[in-house]
């Protein structure tokens, strides 16, 4: 039996639910920009010891349509072919090996972390000799070695080549790279890399872009989630995590929960310049002190338009000759004006100001380097 004090007040409950919904909506609206700007820890770090392993091997590709190595010049191809046939019980003579349907190749593959025996991985096959194309070839059994010299996988299969080459007496057409191909699931794992992840007592996170502020924010986010000071940054690129008791023998669960946390990564003000292509990439935090910029070039353009002079149709004398005609134009860049950029301008202001001068990427590279030399560019310049 209910007493009057325990009577359910539906109106008060309805107001409470409405307030909760309104608060949730406001929090969602305020948190939307932060969520868009933040990144998952999974996307900015990599877990130590969870890494790929590079494999490499040397093999032979057979079945080519006359586009293989020249055995007379490629001695290593000839020796490899002889050695393979000897293992199969065939004793060929040196003079009998004149086929152009065989090519020596290098086989490379990437072994994912925690790969198990019997799993298959993709391989890339690249010509090593003077083969013209690997189209239609078949890779023979090739052991793939790791950095320690042990065999971790064995590759074999039909090559898939995206490029081709066709040649005639007066013209050659080449598309892509016909001397390189891939074999999907072409290698079988034969040896595992022993590593017990769940037995770790400590986990290390390696930042892809080392930064003091980012590493500290990562540790703070992890500690707030775990409710204990388990994470601590040791340097700009490493965050150590002591596995809590709640995750003992369950490091996979710990990494799964941690990698979904979101933080706002920080970055150094940086200007990256590629001199070869004229590409310029500027970070968000690039700032300028007060500086005046003027840019102008002396341009001399010389144009040659020779004309042919010849006598009339019925002239008794005269010869045909070429008369030179030269046009010279000089531009001193008088339309270029000096622009003043105030203190603390943003990246957008910098770009707008330099574009107002009408300069191209090549001149912009020189201007940025000069501004940096003057001490007015508050950023690091990296030339690729």
Automatic annotation (TrEMBL):
* Gene Ontology terms, MF aspect: structural molecule activity
Q: Which GO terms describe its biological process?
A: bacterial-type flagellum-dependent cell motility
Q: Which UniProt keywords apply?
A: Bacterial flagellum, Cell projection, Cilium, Flagellum, Periplasm, Signal
Principal localisation: other
Q: Does the keyword Signal apply?
A: yes
Give the CC-aspect GO terms.
bacterial-type flagellum basal body, distal rod, P ring; outer membrane-bounded periplasmic space
The UniProt subunit note reads as follows: The basal body constitutes a major portion of the flagellar organelle and consists of four rings (L,P,S, and M) mounted on a central rod.
Name-wise, this protein is Flagellar P-ring protein
Q: Which organism is it from?
A: Varunaivibrio sulfuroxidans
């Amino acid at each position: 039996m209910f007493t009057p004090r325990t009577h359910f007040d539906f109106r008060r409950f309805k107001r409470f639910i409405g307030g909760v919904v309104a608060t949730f909506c406001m929090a969602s609206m305020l948190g939307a920009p932060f969520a868009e700007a933040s990144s998952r820890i999974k996307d900015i770090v990599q877990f130590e010891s969870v890494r790929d392993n590079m494999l490499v091997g040397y093999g032979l590709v057979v079945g080519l349509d006359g586009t293989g190595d020249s055995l007379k010049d490629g001695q290593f191809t000839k020796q490899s072919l002889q050695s393979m046939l000897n293992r199969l019980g065939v004793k060929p003579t040196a003079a009998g090996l004149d086929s152009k349907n065989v090519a020596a190749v290098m086989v490379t593959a990437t072994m994912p972390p925690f790969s198990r025996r019997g799993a298959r991985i993709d391989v890339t096959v690249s010509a090593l000799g003077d083969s013209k194309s690997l189209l239609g070839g078949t890779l023979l059994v090739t052991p793939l070695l790791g950095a320690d010299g042990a065999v971790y996988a064995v590759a074999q299969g039909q090559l898939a080549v995206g490029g081709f080459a066709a040649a005639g007496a007066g013209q050659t057409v080449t598309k892509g790279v016909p001397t390189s191909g891939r074999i999907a699931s072409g290698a079988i794992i034969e040896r595992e890399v022993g590593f017990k992840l769940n037995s770790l007592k400590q986990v290390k996170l390696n930042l892809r872009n080392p930064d003091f502020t980012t590493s500290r924010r990562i540790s703070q986010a992890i500690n707030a989630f775990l409710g204990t000071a388990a994470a601590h940054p040791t340097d700009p690129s490493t965050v150590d995590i002591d596995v809590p008791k709640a995750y003992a023998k369950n490091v996979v669960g710990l990494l799964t929960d941690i990698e979904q946390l979101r933080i706002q990564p920080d970055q150094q003000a940086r200007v990256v310049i590629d001199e070869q292509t004229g590409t310029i990439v500027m970070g968000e935090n690039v700032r300028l002190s007060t500086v005046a910029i003027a840019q102008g070039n002396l341009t001399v353009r010389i144009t040659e338009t020779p004309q042919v002079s010849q006598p009339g149709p019925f002239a008794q004398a005269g010869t045909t000759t070429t008369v030179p005609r030269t046009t010279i134009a000089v531009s001193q860049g008088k339309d270029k004006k000096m622009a003043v950029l105030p203190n603390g301008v943003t990246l957008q202001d910098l770009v707008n100001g330099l574009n107002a001068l009408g300069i191209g990427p090549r001149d912009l590279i020189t201007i940025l380097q000069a501004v940096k030399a003057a001490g007015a560019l508050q950023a690091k310049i990296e030339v690729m």
